[in-house]
Amino acid sequence: MPGRPVKYRRILLKLSGEALKGPQAYGVDAEATMAIAARVKEVYDLKVQMALVIGGGNLFRGLGASQGGMDRVTADNMGMLATVMNALALQFALERLGVPTRVQTAIQMHQVAEPFIARRAIRHLEKGRVVIFAAGTGNPFFTTDTTAALRANEIHAEVILKATKVDGIYSDDPVKNPAATRYEQLTFQDALARRLKVMDSTAFSLCMDNGIPVIVFNFHDPQGLGAVIRGDFSSGTLVTN
Question: 184: which residues sit within 8 A by CB, 6+ positions away?
Answer without folding.
Answer: 168, 233, 234, 237, 238
